Protein backbone atom coordinates (compact mmCIF):
# COMPACT_ATOMS: atom_id res chain seq x y z
CA UNK A 1 0.00 0.00 0.00
CA UNK A 2 1.47 3.34 -1.06
CA UNK A 3 0.61 6.24 1.24
CA UNK A 4 0.35 9.78 -0.07
CA UNK A 5 1.85 12.66 1.90
CA UNK A 6 -1.55 13.81 3.15
CA UNK A 7 -2.88 10.36 4.07
CA UNK A 8 -3.15 9.31 7.70
CA UNK A 9 0.07 7.64 8.89
CA UNK A 10 0.18 3.84 9.12
CA UNK A 11 1.40 3.94 12.73
CA UNK A 12 -1.97 4.72 14.30
CA UNK A 13 -0.98 8.19 15.53
CA UNK A 14 -3.83 9.77 13.54
CA UNK A 15 -1.35 12.31 12.10
CA UNK A 16 -0.76 12.95 8.40
CA UNK A 17 1.91 10.71 6.88
CA UNK A 18 4.11 13.73 5.94
CA UNK A 19 4.01 14.93 9.57
CA UNK A 20 4.68 11.47 10.97
CA UNK A 21 6.57 8.51 9.47
CA UNK A 22 7.26 9.71 5.89
CA UNK A 23 10.87 10.77 6.44
CA UNK A 24 11.33 7.76 8.70
CA UNK A 25 10.19 5.39 5.92
CA UNK A 26 12.49 7.07 3.42
CA UNK A 27 15.45 6.64 5.73
CA UNK A 28 14.56 3.02 6.48
CA UNK A 29 14.21 2.29 2.76
CA UNK A 30 17.66 3.69 2.08
CA UNK A 31 19.11 1.42 4.76
CA UNK A 32 17.21 -1.56 3.36
CA UNK A 33 18.53 -0.86 -0.11
CA UNK A 34 22.03 -0.75 1.35
CA UNK A 35 21.47 -4.34 2.45
CA UNK A 36 20.53 -3.83 6.10
CA UNK A 37 17.83 -5.83 7.84
CA UNK A 38 15.05 -3.43 8.86
CA UNK A 39 12.13 -3.80 11.28
CA UNK A 40 8.62 -4.45 10.01
CA UNK A 41 5.83 -2.04 10.98
CA UNK A 42 4.45 -4.34 13.68
CA UNK A 43 7.74 -3.93 15.54
CA UNK A 44 7.18 -0.18 15.84
CA UNK A 45 4.85 0.87 18.66
CA UNK A 46 2.77 4.05 18.64
CA UNK A 47 2.24 6.39 21.61
CA UNK A 48 -0.90 4.63 22.79
CA UNK A 49 0.77 1.24 22.75
CA UNK A 50 3.87 2.61 24.50
CA UNK A 51 1.63 4.10 27.18
CA UNK A 52 -0.01 0.70 27.64
CA UNK A 53 3.35 -1.04 27.95
CA UNK A 54 4.48 1.63 30.46
CA UNK A 55 1.51 0.87 32.69
CA UNK A 56 2.15 -2.85 32.50
CA UNK A 57 5.84 -2.23 33.26
CA UNK A 58 4.97 -0.22 36.36
CA UNK A 59 3.16 -3.23 37.82
CA UNK A 60 5.98 -5.53 36.71
CA UNK A 61 8.50 -3.34 38.59
CA UNK A 62 6.21 -3.38 41.62
CA UNK A 63 6.26 -7.18 41.63
CA UNK A 64 10.05 -7.26 41.51
CA UNK A 65 10.31 -4.65 44.28
CA UNK A 66 8.05 -6.80 46.44
CA UNK A 67 10.12 -9.93 45.76
CA UNK A 68 13.28 -7.96 46.55
CA UNK A 69 11.79 -6.93 49.89
CA UNK A 70 10.63 -10.43 50.87
CA UNK A 71 13.22 -12.84 49.47
CA UNK A 72 15.29 -14.59 52.15
CA UNK A 73 17.11 -17.77 53.10
CA UNK A 74 14.75 -20.64 53.93
CA UNK A 75 11.96 -19.40 51.68
CA UNK A 76 10.52 -21.81 49.11
CA UNK A 77 10.31 -20.70 45.50
CA UNK A 78 6.59 -21.55 45.73
CA UNK A 79 6.27 -18.65 48.21
CA UNK A 80 7.82 -16.32 45.61
CA UNK A 81 5.30 -17.61 43.08
CA UNK A 82 2.45 -16.77 45.46
CA UNK A 83 3.80 -13.25 46.09
CA UNK A 84 3.99 -12.66 42.34
CA UNK A 85 0.53 -14.05 41.63
CA UNK A 86 -1.21 -12.18 44.47
CA UNK A 87 0.44 -8.80 43.77
CA UNK A 88 -0.18 -9.03 40.03
CA UNK A 89 -3.82 -10.07 40.28
CA UNK A 90 -4.57 -7.51 43.02
CA UNK A 91 -3.33 -4.82 40.61
CA UNK A 92 -5.76 -5.96 37.91
CA UNK A 93 -3.05 -7.67 35.87
CA UNK A 94 -2.16 -11.21 34.82
CA UNK A 95 1.19 -12.99 35.25
CA UNK A 96 2.24 -13.52 31.62
CA UNK A 97 4.09 -16.74 32.47
CA UNK A 98 1.02 -18.52 33.83
CA UNK A 99 -0.15 -21.10 31.26
CA UNK A 100 2.23 -19.63 28.65
CA UNK A 101 2.95 -22.61 26.38
CA UNK A 102 1.78 -24.79 29.26
CA UNK A 103 4.10 -23.20 31.84
CA UNK A 104 2.54 -24.09 35.22
CA UNK A 105 3.50 -21.11 37.43
CA UNK A 106 3.42 -17.29 37.56
CA UNK A 107 7.16 -16.60 37.63
CA UNK A 108 10.50 -18.20 36.76
CA UNK A 109 12.95 -18.66 39.66
CA UNK A 110 16.34 -19.91 38.51
CA UNK A 111 18.95 -20.87 41.11
CA UNK A 112 22.72 -21.35 40.66
CA UNK A 113 23.30 -23.64 37.63
CA UNK A 114 19.73 -23.08 36.39
CA UNK A 115 20.06 -20.65 33.48
CA UNK A 116 16.37 -19.75 33.14
CA UNK A 117 12.78 -21.07 33.34
CA UNK A 118 13.16 -22.57 36.82
CA UNK A 119 9.69 -23.68 37.99
CA UNK A 120 8.70 -22.65 41.53
CA UNK A 121 8.13 -25.53 43.93
CA UNK A 122 7.42 -26.11 47.62
CA UNK A 123 10.43 -28.42 47.63
CA UNK A 124 12.89 -25.83 46.39
CA UNK A 125 14.22 -23.87 49.37
CA UNK A 126 16.57 -20.88 49.05
CA UNK A 127 19.86 -21.68 50.78
CA UNK A 128 22.78 -19.66 52.06
CA UNK A 129 25.13 -18.91 49.16
CA UNK A 130 22.54 -19.29 46.38
CA UNK A 131 22.36 -16.86 43.49
CA UNK A 132 18.78 -16.55 42.29
CA UNK A 133 17.17 -15.02 39.22
CA UNK A 134 13.53 -13.98 39.54
CA UNK A 135 12.03 -13.31 36.10
CA UNK A 136 8.65 -11.54 36.11
CA UNK A 137 6.36 -10.80 33.17
CA UNK A 138 3.04 -8.98 33.31
CA UNK A 139 -0.01 -8.50 31.09
CA UNK A 140 -2.05 -5.37 31.85
CA UNK A 141 -4.88 -4.22 29.56
CA UNK A 142 -3.43 -6.55 26.94
CA UNK A 143 0.06 -5.02 27.12
CA UNK A 144 3.14 -7.08 28.06
CA UNK A 145 6.28 -6.25 30.06
CA UNK A 146 9.17 -8.41 31.23
CA UNK A 147 12.15 -7.95 33.58
CA UNK A 148 14.34 -9.95 35.91
CA UNK A 149 16.78 -9.37 38.75
CA UNK A 150 19.38 -11.43 40.59
CA UNK A 151 19.33 -11.92 44.35
CA UNK A 152 22.19 -13.17 46.50
CA UNK A 153 21.03 -15.30 49.43
CA UNK A 154 23.13 -14.99 52.57
CA UNK A 155 26.88 -15.30 52.05
CA UNK A 156 27.69 -15.74 48.38
CA UNK A 157 31.21 -16.72 47.28
CA UNK A 158 33.36 -13.98 45.77
CA UNK A 159 33.38 -15.71 42.38
CA UNK A 160 29.60 -16.02 42.25
CA UNK A 161 29.12 -12.44 43.45
CA UNK A 162 31.40 -11.38 40.60
CA UNK A 163 29.27 -13.38 38.15
CA UNK A 164 26.14 -11.58 39.38
CA UNK A 165 27.84 -8.17 39.13
CA UNK A 166 29.33 -8.76 35.68
CA UNK A 167 25.98 -10.05 34.36
CA UNK A 168 24.38 -6.75 35.48
CA UNK A 169 27.19 -4.77 33.88
CA UNK A 170 26.63 -6.75 30.67
CA UNK A 171 22.95 -5.77 30.67
CA UNK A 172 23.81 -2.12 31.31
CA UNK A 173 26.44 -2.10 28.57
CA UNK A 174 23.93 -3.72 26.22
CA UNK A 175 21.39 -1.06 27.10
CA UNK A 176 23.94 1.75 26.62
CA UNK A 177 24.52 0.43 23.10
CA UNK A 178 20.87 0.96 22.12
CA UNK A 179 20.66 3.96 19.76
CA UNK A 180 18.04 4.92 17.18
CA UNK A 181 19.44 4.04 13.74
CA UNK A 182 22.02 1.78 15.37
CA UNK A 183 21.99 -2.01 15.07
CA UNK A 184 21.00 -5.04 17.13
CA UNK A 185 24.57 -6.31 16.76
CA UNK A 186 25.80 -3.30 18.74
CA UNK A 187 23.99 -4.70 21.79
CA UNK A 188 25.31 -8.25 21.44
CA UNK A 189 28.86 -7.03 20.85
CA UNK A 190 28.87 -4.86 23.99
CA UNK A 191 27.57 -7.74 26.13
CA UNK A 192 29.85 -10.41 24.68
CA UNK A 193 32.98 -8.28 25.02
CA UNK A 194 32.37 -7.53 28.69
CA UNK A 195 31.42 -11.11 29.62
CA UNK A 196 34.40 -12.66 27.86
CA UNK A 197 36.85 -10.04 29.15
CA UNK A 198 35.84 -11.23 32.63
CA UNK A 199 36.35 -14.89 31.76
CA UNK A 200 32.65 -15.71 31.46
CA UNK A 201 30.55 -16.93 28.51
CA UNK A 202 27.27 -15.77 26.96
CA UNK A 203 24.38 -18.19 26.42
CA UNK A 204 23.46 -18.43 22.73
CA UNK A 205 20.38 -20.67 22.85
CA UNK A 206 18.13 -17.98 24.37
CA UNK A 207 17.89 -14.26 23.78
CA UNK A 208 15.85 -11.15 24.24
CA UNK A 209 12.76 -10.46 22.19
CA UNK A 210 10.36 -7.86 20.94
CA UNK A 211 7.49 -7.40 23.39
CA UNK A 212 4.36 -5.32 23.92
CA UNK A 213 1.34 -6.67 22.09
CA UNK A 214 2.49 -10.25 22.56
CA UNK A 215 4.89 -11.80 25.08
CA UNK A 216 7.53 -12.85 22.57
CA UNK A 217 7.64 -10.82 19.36
CA UNK A 218 10.31 -10.33 16.73
CA UNK A 219 13.14 -9.46 16.66
CA UNK A 220 15.28 -12.05 18.44
CA UNK A 221 17.83 -10.08 20.49
CA UNK A 222 21.10 -12.03 20.52
CA UNK A 223 23.48 -11.29 23.39
CA UNK A 224 26.49 -11.91 21.17
CA UNK A 225 27.24 -10.20 17.89
CA UNK A 226 29.17 -7.68 15.88
CA UNK A 227 28.77 -3.91 15.80
CA UNK A 228 26.99 -2.57 12.73
CA UNK A 229 25.37 -5.94 12.02
CA UNK A 230 21.82 -7.22 12.44
CA UNK A 231 18.52 -5.37 12.37
CA UNK A 232 18.41 -1.57 12.33
CA UNK A 233 17.00 -0.09 15.58
CA UNK A 234 14.39 2.64 15.21
CA UNK A 235 12.31 4.79 17.57
CA UNK A 236 9.22 2.96 18.81
CA UNK A 237 10.80 -0.49 19.00
CA UNK A 238 10.26 -2.22 22.34
CA UNK A 239 12.28 -5.31 23.23
CA UNK A 240 13.98 -7.06 26.11
CA UNK A 241 17.68 -7.38 26.75
CA UNK A 242 18.29 -10.32 29.08
CA UNK A 243 21.79 -11.76 28.87
CA UNK A 244 22.43 -15.11 30.55
CA UNK A 245 26.09 -15.17 31.61
CA UNK A 246 27.78 -18.46 32.57
CA UNK A 247 30.89 -18.90 34.70
CA UNK A 248 31.88 -21.88 32.53
CA UNK A 249 30.84 -22.79 29.00
CA UNK A 250 27.76 -21.34 27.30
CA UNK A 251 26.19 -24.72 26.45
CA UNK A 252 22.85 -25.50 28.11
CA UNK A 253 20.32 -28.32 28.25
CA UNK A 254 16.61 -28.57 29.08
CA UNK A 255 15.36 -30.83 31.87
CA UNK A 256 13.79 -33.91 30.27
CA UNK A 257 11.27 -34.41 33.05
CA UNK A 258 9.65 -30.97 33.20
CA UNK A 259 10.59 -29.79 29.66
CA UNK A 260 11.25 -26.26 31.01
CA UNK A 261 14.17 -25.92 33.39
CA UNK A 262 17.33 -24.88 31.56
CA UNK A 263 20.67 -25.90 33.13
CA UNK A 264 24.27 -25.19 32.23
CA UNK A 265 25.78 -28.23 30.54
CA UNK A 266 28.92 -28.13 32.71
CA UNK A 267 27.16 -27.42 36.02
CA UNK A 268 28.72 -23.95 36.35
CA UNK A 269 26.60 -21.16 37.79
CA UNK A 270 24.67 -18.72 35.57
CA UNK A 271 23.37 -15.19 36.16
CA UNK A 272 20.81 -13.11 34.27
CA UNK A 273 19.29 -9.64 34.49
CA UNK A 274 16.61 -8.31 32.16
CA UNK A 275 15.12 -4.97 31.11
CA UNK A 276 12.25 -4.10 28.82
CA UNK A 277 13.64 -1.29 26.67
CA UNK A 278 12.11 1.38 24.38
CA UNK A 279 14.10 2.93 21.53
CA UNK A 280 13.44 6.68 21.51
CA UNK A 281 14.25 9.54 19.08
CA UNK A 282 17.35 10.41 21.10
CA UNK A 283 18.44 7.16 22.72
CA UNK A 284 16.67 4.55 24.77
CA UNK A 285 14.61 4.22 27.91
CA UNK A 286 14.21 1.36 30.38
CA UNK A 287 10.49 0.59 30.76
CA UNK A 288 10.80 -2.29 33.21
CA UNK A 289 13.82 -3.21 35.32
N1 LIG B 1 10.22 -14.31 31.20
C1 LIG B 1 10.91 -15.14 30.22
C2 LIG B 1 11.59 -14.18 29.26
O1 LIG B 1 12.34 -13.38 29.73
C3 LIG B 1 9.97 -16.08 29.55
C4 LIG B 1 9.40 -17.07 30.48
S1 LIG B 1 8.28 -18.02 29.63
C5 LIG B 1 7.76 -19.11 30.79
O2 LIG B 1 11.38 -14.14 28.08
F1 LIG B 1 6.81 -19.77 30.23
F2 LIG B 1 8.79 -19.91 31.12
F3 LIG B 1 7.35 -18.51 31.84
CO1 LIG C 1 12.11 -11.89 28.24
TrEMBL record:
Domain of life where this protein originates: Bacteria
Entry EC no(s): 3.4.11.18
Catalytic activity: Release of N-terminal amino acids, preferentially methionine, from peptides and arylamides
Annotated a divalent metal cation 2 binding sites: 146, 209, 242, 274
PROSITE patterns: MAP_1
Keywords, alphabetical: Aminopeptidase, Hydrolase, Metal-binding, Protease
Leading EC class: hydrolase
HAMAP family referenced in this protein's UniProt entry, alphabetically: MetAP_1
Record's protein name: Methionine aminopeptidase
Annotated organism of origin: Clostridium isatidis
